[in-house]
Write a structure and sequence with these properties.
By secondary structure, the protein is an alpha/beta fold. It folds into two domains: 109 residues, Aspartate Aminotransferase, domain 1 (Alpha-Beta Complex), CATH 3.90.1150; 220 residues, 3-Layer(aba) Sandwich (Aspartate Aminotransferase, domain 2), CATH 3.40.640. It has eleven helices and twelve strands. The strands form three sheets. A seven-stranded mixed beta sheet has the order 2-8-7-6-5-3-4, sandwiched between helices. The chain has a three-stranded antiparallel beta sheet with strand order 9-10-12. Helix 4 links the parallel strand 3 and strand 4. The mean pLDDT is 95. The structure holds pyridoxal-5'-phosphate. The site of pyridoxal-5'-phosphate has 13 residues, from helix 3.
């Protein structure tokens, strides 16, 4: 690419690149390990509309109505269709948000370690990105101080936070919103990709009276639907109208809209699965802690495990045994997605062989 006239802010940057390696146990991209049931796949096949010669509903109204119902079930909050928006993964929602509210001359702020795409999509849309360091635990004072100091145009909070795992209680989100409101310049995005796994209330419950609060969610994680690429947003209707200015026409195919609507109809089955994954997580944490490892507190379907002297070498040794986890670039930790009970038992065994790479604490 060296002689291409690339935009200067992209020169030398690396693309998003979680390794996609075909190994028996893949615990690196935080999907639900259980595939959708055959009856749901059959329903999807039956529902695909025959009129593929026509463009899809540009505004995906049927799907947005279904997602609004799902949110009532999830959060107890009833939103109207014009408060919900859908796109190809929450990454596309984040991109539309930054296209509409970021851009040249504007700044997005996120706390790091955090979700890497907040920074990558910011840069991709010409938005400056400021990464403010955070600990495993993020408290309201730290967030408020950063907002007052930097007055961002777009503030990212992630709850539960990827990769650290802890979720933010509503009072932290509210304090951040109040601090941003004082600056009268920005919008606040709460990325709730893992909300279904968390024990705290969703920020959807804070939308009323907070027109600059945007909550992004996804069907890629708890929903077990990552391959379909569907994410969504809950916000004030004016925010959704703003996103219509930047979305591509017909961005969400009829195939995706139909399949996602069926998946939402089948969502009651997920509750037991989500409970099971949380139990598997807690059992995994207990098992490895009993063997001398540490885990960061997690409200999500992943957990940081450590402390490793050399996470990159530990990652490779696990891969050599057919287990793919995520080296997120943190000095002592590897991130592990919660898989099936059998997969987690295999990981517990494999960690037993990595004691030489464990840091003495
Ligand atoms: C915090 C967070 N937000 C958003 C996403 C994007 O998910 P998707 O584009 O599949 O909806 C991810 C995926 O890993 C994530 O971890």
């Amino acid at each position: 690419m060296s002689d291409l006239p690339l935009r200067p802010e992209l020169v030398g940057r690396s693309p998003y690149g979680a390794p996609q390696i075909d190994v028996p146990i893949r615990l690196n991209t935080n999907e639900n390990p259980y595939p959708p049931p055959p009856e749901m796949i059959a329903d999807i096949a039956a529902r695909i509309a025959p009129d593929l010669n026509r463009y899809p509903d540009r505004d995906a109204v049927g799907l947005r109505a279904a997602l609004a119902e799902y949110l009532v079930d999830q959060t107890g909050v009833r939103l109207s269709v014009d408060q919900v928006w859908a796109a190809n993964g929450s990454n596309e929602i984040l991109q539309q948000i930054l296209q509409a509210f970021g851009g040249p001359g504007r700044t997005a702020l996120g706390f790091q370690p955090g979700y890497t795409m907040h920074e990558l999509i910011s840069r991709g849309t010409g938005t400056a990105f400021l990464g403010v360091p955070r600990d495993l635990h993020l408290d309201a004072d730290h967030v408020v101080a950063a907002v007052r100091e930097h007055r961002p145009d777009v503030l990212f909070l992630c709850s539960p936070n990827n990769p650290t795992g802890e979720s933010l209680p509503p009072d932290v989100i509210n304090a951040a919103y109040q601090a941003l409101a004082e600056t009268d310049s920005g919008i606040m995005v709460v990325d709730e990709a893992y909300a279904e796994f968390a024990g705290v209330d969703s920020a959807v419950g804070l939308l009323e009276g907070r027109p600059r609060l945007l909550v992004t969610r996804t069907m890629s994680k708890a929903f077990a639907f990552a391959g379909a690429r569907v994410g969504y947003l809950a916000a004030d209707p004016a925010v959704v109208e703003a996103l219509l200015l930047v979305r591509l026409p017909y961005h969400l195919s009829s195939l995706t809209q139909a399949a996602a609507q069926v998946a939402v109809e089948h969502s009651p089955r997920l509750k037991e699965q989500i409970r099971h994954l949380c139990r598997t997580r807690d059992e995994f944490v207990a098992a490895v802690s009993a063997k001398g490892w540490q885990c960061a507190p997690s409200d999500a379907n992943f957990v940081l495990v450590g402390p490793f002297i050399d996470p990159a070498r530990a990652w490779q040794r696990l891969l050599d045994q057919g287990i793919l986890v995520r080296d997120v670039g943190l000095p002592r930790w590897l991130r592990v997605t919660i898989g099936t009970d059998e997969q987690m038992a295999a990981l517990v065994d494999a960690l037993g062989g990595l004691k030489d790479l464990r840091e003495r604490t």
